[in-house]
Amino acid sequence: MTALVAAFWVQAYLTRLRLQEIPAFVTSHGDNDAGAVLIKINTLDGQARAFQRGYDLATGNRRWVELIAGAEPEVDAAIRRQIEFDPDLWVIEVEDRQGRTLLDDPGLD
Fold first, then answer.
1. How far apart are CA 59 and CA 76, in angstroms?
2. 3-state DSSP call for residue 86?
3. Where do the DSSP E strands lie in the chain?
4. Most exposed: 1, 36, 38, 100, by fewest CB within 10 Å?
5. pLDDT for 17-73, tens place per residue?
6. How far apart are CA 21 and CA 99, in angstroms?
7. What is the pLDDT of residue 73?
8. Structural domains of the chain in order of their starting residue, each with its CATH number
9. pTM of structure
């Protein structure tokens, strides 16, 4: 299966969030073609979580896995370290009190 261009996936994801009236912002613009994507969910209560794509070794499928969860400053620090390691990284910040990411929706895997 052909991989989607990163910028296309990001725009599709932002559109899905917008249709559900979930605010989201690109806080780090990665490589348009092959940049990895990290999703930060800010629940607006001082807590946050960050997700990255990973592989399920048992099935070989890609899935979203939690990178870190906790106080928002700690999550932000972890994201900064990831960007230092990978400057092509996209970071999307989703703001939702319910913690909705839509990452389990079909087509976003």
1. 31
2. coil
3. 24-28, 37-42, 47-55, 62-71, 90-95
4. 1
5. 999 999 999 999 999 988 899 999 999 999 999 999 887 788 878 889 999 999 999
6. 13
7. 98
8. 6-95 (3.40.1530.20)
9. 0.89
